Amino acid sequence: MAILTDEWRTVGPRYIRVYATGSRNAWHPVNAILNYAYAVIQTQVQIKAVADGYGPMLGIMHYDRDGAPAFVFDMMEPERPKVDRAVLAFLKSEALHPADFTIREDGVVRLNPELARRVAGLTANCEHGV
Question: I need a surface site. Which of 54, 76, 79, 128 has the fewest CB within 10 A?
Answer without folding.
Answer: 54
